[in-house]
Design a protein that fits this description.
It is built from 18 helices and no strands. The chain has one domain: Hydantoin permease (Orthogonal Bundle), CATH 1.10.4160. The longest helix has 34 residues. By secondary structure, the chain is mainly α. The radius of gyration is 21 Å and the shape is globular. It binds tryptophan. The site of tryptophan (TRP) has 17 residues, from helix 1, helix 2, helix 5, helix 10 and helix 14.
Length: 452
């Protein structure tokens, strides 16, 4: 079936916003940001992360949406079409191709962590957390990691959920569910924050996260923070570009971007506060790594009134947030297959789903059987995929998109898409053309050992 593809459009601005926010808000905010703050020196990381969101994330999100809306296609064909319009080399399509692969690599580990969250819904529901203390909570989490079969089961469930929706297409109704579930996630977070305020050590948490300690800002911290700004806003691989291609013409890209960036960043920081208040009150290690939220949150749910119900609901909402993010990781690849190959959406989803599922098996084994298998510079499979995508592939994708939109695309075309007043447009142009590329480039120089 190789019919010209009719593109569906989002119902209105809110659905686009919620779908894009649904892509942005996910494990990156709830699972990854909190533990990275702990591993990378607390407030130093938070400060650089916020700067990266403001100076690089927001302008590049605008760039990615504008490229998508102008192209009206998947990233690969989209970049090709935009290059044709700008009258430059069609090789820009490989940028779209790189993004699609990046998304699948991310999903390879995202789905495994999504599986951890699913398993925690189950544990919360059966009452595992009742009255639990730190050491027991840590032991529970370690037991999960030590069981490849359990991990495989939940990873498989997560992949089925993701590919099930992807097989049905972007108007499947999931974005409507975002309407209720994202606000619900914020609400339940407030409950958690309330608990942390009364029972945790919020004073220490605030100090840990916000008392600037400039001495701890190292190039490695900047690199990780920049990578996470991309990860958290879903930038640099074409996910936002695909969503932008479904965005109606009259909607303001700048305003939408700012709302999403604020919601996304706030959510992550609030989770961080709730968690570190618990970490300090329970004398748990701040630099626990990827298991952090799974080790700390059960303590809160195990002790708060109604915690059985609230904990179950919390992990359900997190799973949902992860689910609406994971869809955007595969959507570019699926859209590419459907728009280019004579293949049905369902077949494409099956094919891609199986490949990513296999990759996920390697990832979950790297938490137990294959823990000692190192891929590059002492990193195991999970760590390699994570570092490779967040600190190299996403910023690289973003860098090229910025260069394309800023230096190759005709100025009146970007102006037309952004539809901003003079100052706003100039500000975007300055950050997109100069600030963001320099920041990314400098970080790469460090990464490849040119700069120390
Ligand atoms: N931003 C999501 C999160 O924070 C993850 C994600 C979804 C993503 N789509 C993406 C990251 C595309 C990078 C690129 O959990």
């Amino acid at each position: 079936m190789n019919l010209p593809v009719k593109r569906s459009h989002w119902g209105n601005r809110w659905t686009f916003m919620l779908a894009t926010a649904g892509s942005a808000i996910g494990l990156g905010n709830i699972w990854k940001l909190p533990y990275m703050i702990g591993v990378n020196g607390g407030s130093a990381f938070v400060l650089v992360f916020i700067l990266c969101i403001l100076l690089v994330g927001i302008p590049l999100m605008m760039t990615e949406i504008l490229l998508g809306r102008r192209a009206q296609k998947n990233p690969y064909n989209g970049m090709q079409a935009l290059a044709a319009e700008a009258n430059v080399s069609r090789s820009w399509k490989y940028l779209g191709g790189m993004g699609m692969v990046t998304g699948l690599l991310i999903l390879g580990f995202y789905s495994v962590i999504g599986g951890w969250v699913l398993s925690y819904i189950y544990y919360a529901a059966i009452g595992t957390f009742a009255g639990i203390e730190g050491p027991q909570s840590i032991a529970n989490f370690n037991a999960l990691l030590a069981s490849p079969v359990t991990l495989l089961f939940w990873h498989t469930v997560f992949m089925l959920l993701t590919m099930g929706v992807v097989a049905r297409g972007v108007n499947s109704g999931l974005e409507k569910a975002n309407n209720i579930l994202i606000p619900a996630l914020f609400m339940i977070l407030l409950v958690l924050l309330g608990y942390s305020l009364s029972e945790g050590d919020m004073h220490l948490a605030v100090q840990f996260m916000f008392n600037p300690d400039f001495g701890k800002i190292t190039p490695a911290v900047v690199l990780t923070a920049l990578g996470h700004a991309f990860f958290s806003l879903s930038l640099g691989m074409g996910a936002v570009m695909v969503y932008g291609s479904y965005l109606q013409r009259h909607i303001s890209i700048a305003r939408t971007t700012i709302y999403i960036a604020i919601a996304d960043t706030m959510l992550g920081l609030l989770v961080g506060l709730a968690i570190y208040a618990l970490v300090f009150a329970n004398h748990l290690p701040a630099a626990a790594g990827p298991g952090l939220i799974f080790q700390t949150l059960p303590i809160a749910f195990g002790h708060m009134p109604g915690g059985h119900f609230i904990g179950t609901l919390f992990f359900m909402l997190v799973a949902f947030a992860a689910w609406s993010s994971s869809i955007s990781l595969v959507e570019p690849a699926i859209a590419w297959i459907v728009e280019n190959k004579a293949m049905k959406r369902t077949t494409a989803a099956l094919l891609i789903g199986i490949s990513v599922w296999l990759l996920g098996i390697a990832v979950l084994l790297s938490f137990n059987e294959w823990k000692e298998i190192k891929i590059i510079s002492g990193l195991n499979i999970f760590e390699t995929l994570d570092k490779l995508t967040s600190t190299i592939l996403l910023p690289l994708g973003g860098l090229f998109m910025a260069i394309f939109a800023g230096y190759f695309m005709k100025k009146n075309h970007s102006q037309e898409e952004l539809n901003l007043h003079r100052n706003g447009y100039d500000l975007w142009r300055f950050t997109n053309n100069i600030v963001a590329p320099i920041a990314i480039f400098a970080v790469f120089l460090y990464l490849f050992g040119v700069m120390k």
